[in-house]
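Case study 2.
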Amino acid sequence: MAKSKKKSARGKGKGRRIALFVIPSALILSLAIFLILWKAPPRKKHEAQIVPPPIPAEEKKEEKKEETRRVPPPRLALIIDDGGYNTAKFKGMLGMGRAMTFAILPNTPHAREVALMAHRDGSEVMLHLPMEPKEEETYALEERPCERG
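Prediction:
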C-alpha cells in the first residue's frame, strides 16, 4: 500500500506543476498576440481606385473660356395642350415654323393622325393623360376635423 500512496502523491504534484506552468504561459502568449495585433496598422481593403480620365488640353482651354462666355438669352418653350380634336387648326400650328411640343389627348377623334403629323414635322409629341378617377365619389377624401389632443 505504501507504494501506491507515493505514486498518487507524485502524480498530483506533477499536474499542479504543469498547470502552474501552462496557464501563465498561455496568458502571456495571448497578451503578446493581443498587443501585436493592437499596435499593427489596420489593413487597407484592396479596392479599385477610381481615377478620373485625363482632360485633354483642348478641354482645359475651353474651361478657362467659360468664365468669359456670355450667358445665352432665355428661351421660350411652347406646349400646345389638348391636341387631337381638330386637324385643320393643328395644321395651322405646324406651319408656324417654330419649335413646339404638342400634348395629344388619347381617345380623341384625330389623336393618332395629329400625333403622326407632329412627329413627321419634327416636333415633340407628349401624351396628355388625364388622371381623374371615373368614380369620384369612391375615391374622394373625407373631410375630417383636425384632431388635437
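DSSP finds five helices and three strands in the chain.
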